[in-house]
Structure formats: structure tokens, C-alpha cells
Design goal:
This protein is of the alpha+beta class. 30% of the residues lie in helices and 29% in strands. It has 8 helices and 15 strands. The protein has helices at residues 23-27, 45-59, 67-80, 123-128, 151-162, 205-216, 228-232, 264-280; strands at residues 3-6, 9-12, 30-38, 41-43, 86-93, 111-118, 130-136, 167-172, 175-179, 183-188, 191-194, 221-223, 236-241, 245-252, 255-256. Helix 6 links the parallel strand 11 (191-194) and strand 12 (221-223). The longest helix is centred in the last third of the chain and has 17 residues, at 264-280. It is globular. It binds ligand DCS. Ligand DCS binds at residues 34, 153, 178, 181-183, 202, 204-207, 241-243.
């Protein structure tokens, strides 16, 4: 089955049409979420929905359904497509109106679409680790909003990927911010460091799960910005996102991190994360 959700209905993908004057299409004037499905169950769905409504508020964008109703639509879509291990992509735009920069009048209703996709856990990369490229963070100053406008992220990812890297790790001046589609972490002397949740990064849901796991297991976790130099001298580096989970980074540019293998703190977090997945997504 290839059903999608579009403006209140679950329909076959071939029948889903978006107007060319949709503001998402013309301006990237919208927001999105990527939500994980493990074994047919959603993972941290509530947190993603809360962040979606927060992004909307920051953009002065009205989502045409209350959170509970939108959640119910997504669950129906997952069920309809029989998703096992995959994702739900959800986006809300400011709707369709004649192209003009300022916002349309209040009677224009936002467009809401969602689709599902199979997405197996990237087990091999998680076991072996991946490489990353350091790039200047040229994005805007509201990276806390999960906006459709991803050009700065795309340029960075493309440059890194074209050289065979899994991710671009971004820095503003000397300070490491985050990955192009992930949060970035380093481990030094047993302490995990990550950039504080300011306007300069997206406060990842995976990042928050990791923070919670650290708290529950007395692993030292510091929301403290660190420098490029410190990143390259770290004992371990990893990135985290809905699709990458806890992903070890074993080399950045030409610099091998630690001994070039996923480190013990990263591996412990991977194990704790897997446990949390099983708790939240029991096999049906
Ligand atoms: N930072 C950026 C810039 C991101 O795009 C993402 C996720 C994250 C951090 C991590 O956030 P989550 O832990 O909530 O996923 N980006 C999504 C994306 O575009 N594809 O997959 C995840």
C-alpha cells in the first residue's frame, strides 16, 4: 500500500496533488518532522508532535488540526501502509495563495501532508562508525525551528557526501554547532559534551533521549559548546538523529578520532538506546 495523508484524508499517493502556489513549494514556508517507526510502533511521537507545534508557533503558522487529531491521522497512515521499520515524514506549510512575501490572510489554511517510508536501522554503519567533514555553518540564526528551508544544510551535506562522508559537522567560527541533519557530541575524559539548545541548533529528540539516558545511568552529560580543536582531540565523537540513532564518528577530515573505532561511551549509549527502543516499541 502506498497511502499518504493530505489535508485531512488518507489517499493513494498518485491522487495527492499540491498547488504550485503552495508557500512550502515557493518559499519553503513551512515546517516538518521525521518520526521513527520501530516494529510498527512510533518512537517518541509525542515529543516530535510537541516540537512541531512549537516550530509552528515560532513561525506564526497555524496547524489546522489539534495535536491529538493529527497524531491519530498519522497512526492511521502507518497502519494503512503496514510500516514495520521506517519513518513518517510530516510537513505543514502556510498554504496556497498568490505569491507575495507577506503572510496570506487568516482564511488561508495550512497544507498538511505526510507519507511513510521503510527505513531499516543502519546497523553496519552504527557498528563500524562513519566519517565526517568539517564545514563552516552558513545557516540562518533560527536553527531551533525545524523549517523546510534547508539550503544551508543541503549544501553542507552535499559537499561532505560527494567526498564520501556520512555527515558534515558544522562550526560557527571556532565553535562546533551540529551536523547538517544530526546533533554532534564529543566525549572527553568520560564526559559527553554537546552544544546547548539555543537558536544555533535544532534541539533533537534523539539528543534529548540521550540526555535522559545519561541522567538515568549517571553518565556525565554537559550541554556546553566546544571548539573544533577540542572535537578533533576528543576521545570519541558521535552524531545522533531520528534516522541515525547514536552513530559513531571515527574520522573527521584527515583526523582519526581516538583509536579509529567506536568508543566505549558511544557503544554504551547505543546499547541503552536500543533498550529504550524495545521498552517504547514492544514487538506486537
Ligand atoms: N539537527 C538537524 C539540523 C537535523 O536536521 C536533525 C534531524 C537533528 C539535528 C536531529 O533531530 P532528531 O533527533 O529530532 O531527529 N533531521 C531529520 C531529517 O531531516 N532527517 O532525519 C531526521
Amino acid at each position: 500500500m502506498n497511502s499518504v495523508f493530505i489535508n485531512g484524508e488518507v489517499v493513494d499517493r498518485a491522487n495527492a496533488k499540491i498547488d504550485i502556489e503552495d508557500r512550502g513549494y515557493q518559499f519553503g514556508d513551512g515546517i516538518y518532522e521525521v518520526i521513527r517507526v520501530y516494529g510498527g510502533n512510533t518512537f517518541t511521537m509525542k515529543e516530535h508532535m510537541v516540537r512541531l507545534y512549537q516550530s509552528a508557533e515560532k513561525m506564526k503558522l497555524e496547524i489546522p488540526y489539534p495535536e491529538e487529531e493529527l497524531t491519530a491521522h498519522l497512526l492511521k497512515l502507518i497502519d494503512s501502509n503496514q510500516v514495520k521499520d521506517g519513518i513518517v515524514y510530516l510537513q505543514v506549510t502556510r498554504g496556497v495563495s498568490a505569491r507575495q512575501h507577506h503572510f496570506p490572510s487568516g482564511d488561508v489554511i495550512g497544507s498538511v501532508v505526510a507519507y511513510t517510508k521503510d527505513f531499516p536501522v543502519p546497523s553496519q554503519q552504527m557498528e563500524l562508525g562513519v566519517t565526517a567533514k568539517l564545514l563552516e555553518d552558513i545557516r540562518w540564526l533560527r536553527c531551533d525551528i525545524k523549517s523546510l528551508n534547508l539550503l544551508g544544510n543541503l549544501l553542507a551535506k552535499e559537499e561532505a557526501a560527494s567526498e564520501g562522508h556520512f555527515e558534515a559537522i558544522l562550526h560557527r567560527g571556532d565553535t562546533v554547532t551540529e551536523g547538517s541533519s544530526s546533533n554532534a557530541f564529543m566525549v572527553k575524559d568520560g564526559v559527553i559534551y554537546t552544544h546547548p539548545a539555543t537558536n544555533l541548533i535544532l534541539n533533537g529528540i534523539t539528543r534529548r533521549v540521550i540526555e535522559g539516558l545519561c541522567r538515568e545511568n549517571t553518565i556525565s552529560f554537559q550541554e556546553e559548546a566546544f571548539l573544533v580543536r577540542e572535537l578533533l582531540e576528543a576521545d570519541e565523537v558521535f552524531i545522533a538523529s531520528t534516522t541515525s540513532e547514536v552513530m559513531p564518528v571515527i574520522k573527521i577530515d584527515e583526523q582519526t578520532i581516538g583509536d579509529g573505532k567506536p568508543g566505549p561511551v558511544t557503544k554504551r549509549l547505543q546499547a541503552l538506546f536500543s533498550e529504550r527502543k524495545r521498552e517504547q516499541s514492544p514487538v506486537k
